[in-house]
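sorry for the late reply, my laptop died twice this morning and i had to redo everyting from scratch. anyway the thing you sent over, i finally got around to it. pasting the sequence first so we're on the same page, its 349 residues, then the predicted structure underneath. double check i copied it right bc i was rushing
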Amino acid sequence: MSTHSNPTYREPVNNQSSVPLHKRITELSTEIQESSIPFQTLIDEVGQVIVGQEKLIQRMLIGLLGNGHLLIEGVPGLAKTTAVACLAKAIATDFQRIQFTPDLLPADVVGTLVYRPQQQEFVVQKGPIFSNLILADEINRAPAKVQSALLEAMQERQVTIGSETYPLDDPFLVMATQNPVEQEGTYPLPEAQMDRFMLKVVVGYPNREQEHLILQRMSKTKQNHDVRAVMKPGNILYARKLIDEIYIDNKVQDYIVDLVMATREPEKYGVPVDGLIQYGVSPRATISLTLAAKANAFLQGRGYVIPQDVKDLALDVLRHRLIITYEAEAEDKTSEDVVSTILAHVPVP
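ok and here's the structure:
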């Protein structure tokens, strides 16, 4: 298995103007097919432990490849935490779990200055944020100051402790979980902060066959979550270079922009959601949807994006960025319903 830890630099496909476009895309697709093999192996490896959460595993990889962060929502007991831990083991990288509680302080996340009487000086004590993969478990249980400290680190990819600024490791991915059932004693994330997450993945219950498999595999007094390390961080960094080169046609670009604009001016696109949208999505949605579509194309072994890549990821990219009105809530409409209506009415190229 090639780890591509020290890849040979080559000129990006978009700059090879002397080579025909179809040939460049073919060459890129060939290289992507080889480079995506470890990621498919990773999906299979994590799937040995996690049952019925193929979509979650794929979305975690898309976030990792697209250099974005994930918000994972689901009721307790659906293996959200276990999935993140298994992903970290399969990549052979640093992993930290932060259990968010109401008494947590920002210093518990990012670190602080500690005074050492022996040396009569302050030394930096780095927090758990200094890792490659961060699991922010039940993020909505921590107060606003702690959430802001985490989200600032997510955005800036650096942490300031005292007068010094420290860059975070690369790759760096935060996967935050929240429980939608309990509202008492929680601090819901403000809409503006939700926008910092590339994807919001809603995890549902397994079906009957998957539940039966969970019974057979997990009904033991000692849980076995052994996952082999099948990938190194170098694979991810090299894959990101290839993703930047993936071709996306102007028509597909227009489709992404149309979906975003339809959340702001639905009447211009003939989308019947009058009075349901309070605020449309931000330009971050355009960027995230493009990167997510490219990452999905990479996992499929393609050097180009197709409209289906965009449709497959649109709900996860847009659902937490679209703010609906009180009228929509009164009609039992959710942001997912509105996004689905937009996808059904905006023409696909």
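The longest strand covers residues 111-116.
thats about all i looked at so far, will dig more tmrw
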